[in-house]
Design a protein that fits this description.
Blueprint lengths: L3 H12 L19 H10 L1
């Protein structure tokens, strides 16, 4: 079960082009490791 608050946080990070500290680049949907969250974010974006 996914938590909507986490989905919202991930969407916000992607839309605001926040820098991913692991890659040094803006967050992308592909950076999300859990498939359920990746799918939920893709539906919103």
């Amino acid at each position: 079960m996914i938590k909507q608050i986490i989905v919202d946080m991930l969407v916000r990070k992607i839309k605001n082009q926040e820098i991913n500290p692991n890659t040094g680049e803006a967050f992308k949907v592909e950076d999300i490791k859990v498939a359920e969250y990746q799918n939920a974010v893709q539906e919103i974006i």
